[in-house]
Amino acid sequence: MTAILRRLLPPALRHAIMRWGRRFWLFFCRCLPLRSRVLFYSIRADGRLLENAQAVYDRVDGSKVIFAHKLPHSIRENLLACYYLMTSRVIVTDDYVRYFRLFHLKKGQRVLQVWHACGAFKKFALDAPSLLTPAQERATHAPYTAVAVTAEACRAPYAGAFGIPVERCLPIGLPRTDSLLTGRDALATAFRRKYPQLAGRTLYLFCPTFRERDGERIPYASGLDWQALSRALRPEEVLIVCRHPLMTEPLLDGKYPNLIDLTREPTSMLLAACDVLITDYSSVFYDASLLKVPTVFYCPDLADYERGFYIRFPEDLPGPLVTAPEALLPALRQTKSDPPVERIAAFCAFQLSACDGHAAERAAAIVNEWMQ
Asked: Which domain holds residue 223?
């Protein structure tokens, strides 16, 4: 149908028909009664929930449905999303729901936001550069009935970022951290079985995040000489690369026996097996801190990084900060031999105090109560 419209109608008329068709569909869905159903909405993967939402899904009772599609959505996915969002009594999401900018939810509907990142680290939503206007950001987050956060200290930052009352931000922990705390040994064992050649070696896990400028993605430049780094590593040392899901460009500039890209593997499994994490502005170090894995922060572009932070950077970080490529390997070796145990414990008490292995239970209990 869309292809036919493209061929037969001028763009202005085609857009008008699509706009009015969407308005009719929204009106139609608004007229439908609410169903006693929990909708799990996610844009983080196609056809499946990731760990955070899945942990809640597994513990929620009654009727539930999954809408999991990366953006951009097709016309069919648009229509289906609007139908589910406007007819489900409870909505659980782990990211933005762009459709909240198109319509108001009905009386009696409730929304639980289980944001995908731990803690209050990088500024986001209303507090960060965005392609959305402030009004669009507020409309996106206004429907949240409750937001799961990982500590009391995180409530105010989330409330400000989402433009909602602080009372809606509940320090119940992040659901996906339960499996980290209770299943580390199993994750590490799974890694050793899959990669027996790496057993007994010192593993440095490099997890950089994507870069933006004025809200637009830009390529990431590590500043590392991979060939020189490969030569400098000792025989027992291996560096594993795990790119952020939004980073499409490769990091390694060739094949090296001791530099391995395992981006396809679950980050939780890699964290459970590694000795030291290397990251920059990614909240993955929160997960590492829960596992008591030390972190080295490698930030060669610190002076140019435009997102601000909710914590003092680098004073509050649970590990050393390096900005020069040549300082990275010495920092890794020093951190491996003398991990900052007290700094990690203090950081967890500050930003992760609600993550105790029972966060998913508490989140599901809220949803189940809403459904009664």
From this structure: 180-351
